[in-house]
Amino acid sequence: MKHRSKLLATWLALTLVLAMTGCRWGPNEPPSSVREAGDAAGEYAKALDGVAGVKVIFNQPGHDPKDHPRSADDVSTWLVSIRLRVSKGTGTNVAVAAAQALAENVAGQRLGFAWEVGISDADEATGAGAEAGVYSSQGPAPITAQYFAVAREIGALPGVERAMMDHDGVAEVTTTGFQFLKPVGAYLAAKQLNVGALLVSQGRAHITTAGKALGAGLTELVTQLGTQFAARSVDVDTRVLYGQPQRRLTLTVEDSSQSQPILEYLRSTPLAYTPGEAVVTDFFIAEKGTGLTLVSGKLNYAGPQPPPPPIDEPSGPPTYSPPSYIPAPPCTVAQLTASMKGRVEAALGHRAMTILLTNTSATRCSVEGYPGVKFFADDGAPIPVTLTHGSSYMFSDPGPAPISLAPGATATAMLAWGANSTTQGHILPASMAVAPREGEGFVPTQVLTDTPDIIEGSELEVSAWDWPDAPLFR
Question: Which residue, of 21, 333, 417, 461, has the greatest Cβ tally within 10 A?
């Protein structure tokens, strides 16, 4: 037991030393010549102007002790990466000059192993901030002041956790959510920079292009798929990898029932195409657990010029595709029931409630546009109100779009109004009737689950029908 405790204490002490020195070793311990050269370069870097911290990493790229054993004594298999951390107040030119000086110092030693030098003003604990790299002993790969300045500018955009620029002008950006992709995409397009990857920590969007801007239309499409639908990840790939074209949009969903709203959105959304932008021609929707392709198709482009046809890819294993998409016919009143969801929402003198419209028939049908709504008193007398279409303080209107309802499926719409400070002497509604579209018949009257402070003459905003659980509320 004493021996085991002594070993544990030794291991913990070694781990602490490595953490304090900022060094990380690969599966093998580097040879003394590699370790000493790396440590010496780190000490040299600490004295350079603008350098606030240094991290030295020893690694054997591609090393796998089982499949690809490599000798720790083979100096040529080692890579020494040095990251110079500068404070955000350090001038870009000063930071680049420090990296240049370090790169020249280590490259001149010709010690037989690979070097990389990068600069960042990212926080070492969180990784947040900007980074540029790398100077490399493998060939000329200078970090320019322009690229590091761009990395800093991207890192300052809202929602950006980390921005990386490499010497080829490829940007890799990590954001805190899909909604921050649009400003990053607009910035990269304006700078005419390549997009290496846009990675999202809430959900995942991985966008790879072949030297062309993704374009506002595709960026908007990815943003909407990530914020409004059940997509767990969105992958846009326009590379040509190993001679095979990868010009497609791939989405994953938790289960197959979530693919229909996404499919209808992709079918109904025209994409503007501008020459010079990256082109994505195909889409695939896959199930997360099995990886099975549920449905695939072509994206819907609209002028001024259609995208070039895709290059045929070699056929792979067969995948399941449901029958071709056919829009469902409009729902009739007889196929529907209406109800109020839960209680009235309240915020700063504003009120809102959710209307549910459920397909109770045995066949699929669709609703589109804005509902008609009537309110009634206990005795059935109508309470006259005024409805207007659009967004309110309480919700954002998604706009009219076809909502296809399978048997048992539900569509939602929002109603909002200003709170009535006094309802004394006024009759409050006890029930309501809903029409799937204005000017058409009403679904039978339903009792309200909560009493809204709606009185005669109230003015209400109503949203278009949307999918359940869509992020309508502010």
Answer: 417
Q: Among 326, 354, 373, where does a domain finish? A: 326
Domain membership of residue 162 (yes or no) is: no
How far apart are alpha carbons 365 and 363 in whole angstroms? 7
In 3D, which of 89, 88, 91, 75 has the Cα closest to residue 36? 75
Element (H, E) at 101: helix 92-107
How far, in Å, CA of 206 to CA of 83, rounded?
Answer: 25
**Domain identity same for 193 and 321:** yes
Cα separation of 440 and 377, whole Å?
Answer: 22
Structure tokens at 306: 């259609």
Of 401, 337, 415, 394, residue with least CA distance to 366: 401
Cα–Cα distance for residue pair 19/194, rounded to 1 Å: 35
Same domain, yes or no: 178 and 214: yes
- Regarding whether 273 and 352 lie in a shared domain, the answer is no
Cα dihedral value 200, 319, 270, 272, nearest 10? 70
| Of the residues 300, 326, 352, the one at which a domain ends | 326
> If you write DSSP's letter for every residue of 246-259 in order, what string do you get?
EEEEEEEESSGGGH
Give the pLDDT confidence score for residue 462 in this predicted structure. Answer: 92
Instruction: Identify the H or E element spanning 133.
Output: strand 129-136
Give the chain's residues under pLDDT 70: 1-28, 62-72, 108-111, 124-125, 127, 133-143, 167, 211, 230, 240-245, 304-327, 421, 423, 468-474
The first and second tokens of residue 273, run together, are: 């195409």
Contact 230, 254 (CB under 8 A): yes
Q: What is the pLDDT of residues 209-231, one digit of tens each?
A: 876 778 888 888 988 888 888 67
Q: What is the DSSP letter of 68?
A: B
Tell me the C-alpha distance between 136 and 118, whole Å: 9
Residue type, 89: G
